[in-house]
Amino acid sequence: MIALKITDVRRLMAHLLTRPTFDRYLLSEGQVTTFCTFLIEGNWQRSFMDPDETDPASDIPFTPWEHVRPYCLSLIKGKRTPLSFKFVFIFPREDLPAFLAKNELTLPADSIYGLYLNFSFRDGALLATTGTSIKTFSLDRSLDAAWDAFVLDFLRSEGIAAERV
Asked: Rounded to 5 degrees, what are φ and ψ at 126?
């Protein structure tokens, strides 16, 4: 796990709220505090969707960010900066096998609960933290190291400046 201070808040916010940069990630939970606090549970409510809007065979437990992003933009945009926000993202499950292969990790994809990327904003500071969750205990931290390196490279490739805290 690493913690990063995002040094160009404006650029990250543009990617987060107005561009498809994070759209494939799943939203586990979110919270935005402006004049009140808005809580978002990311559980995907398949029964709400029209049958042609979702794949009935899909096993997605959380909502893709692309579906929540417009609502979060409407909460955050305006003349005043939010008091705080927090978003917990999960790396897309369908990309796990390729991620594991690219990093030469032998861990089976189905043994991973999730690869997490959290963004939290408070008192003008925006932090990104990483995390991993696997189904069994292991002293091997190669998955953590690979995920941390991926996030650093991903942010850098999008021109989002960050420094370790």
From this structure: -115, 120
